[in-house]
Fold this sequence. Notes:
- This protein has 9 helices and 4 strands; from the N terminus they run H-E-H-H-E-H-H-E-H-H-E-H-H.
- By secondary structure, it is mainly α.
- The strands form 2 sheets. It has a two-stranded antiparallel ribbon with strand order 1-2. The chain has a two-stranded antiparallel sheet with strand order 3-4.
Amino acid sequence: MSVADEVFDRLDADGDGMLVADDYRANAERLLQSYGMGPSSPKGRALIEASLALWERQAEQVDRDHDGRIGREEYREWFASLTASASPEVLAVLHAQFNVADRDGDGLMDRHEYAVWRSLRSVPTEAAEASFELADTNGDGVISWDDFAAAAREHGLAALLFGP
């Protein structure tokens, strides 16, 4: 199974084979729940708003029949476009997720926080460790959002999310 299919299946909250805005909201709420946060918390609202903005952008790009649903093939097409560059909406969702995963709110994610964040997205520990190394360019054991974004530009977003 491809990474795009794995992400699609994780997003498809009701398992009906179609993605809708509610799937994106439910995915954000599941992540928040994993961290013991509610959707009305500041970080929760930011993540849900970013997730719904991403849904809108994806629907605009690949929902060709304008039925308000994205099928697996449409999602694969959109996912393939991530190799070129990430949209501002994708980066906003990742930034919101990064902030949720930054448990102490210091703006930095240590190796453990990063591994937990990626494991909640079904990324194997070894792949998360390798992607953390790409972002921790000074070797101090922590990364900021700026470190993550710079590494994504240098190595590609897929390498940071799913391992090099």
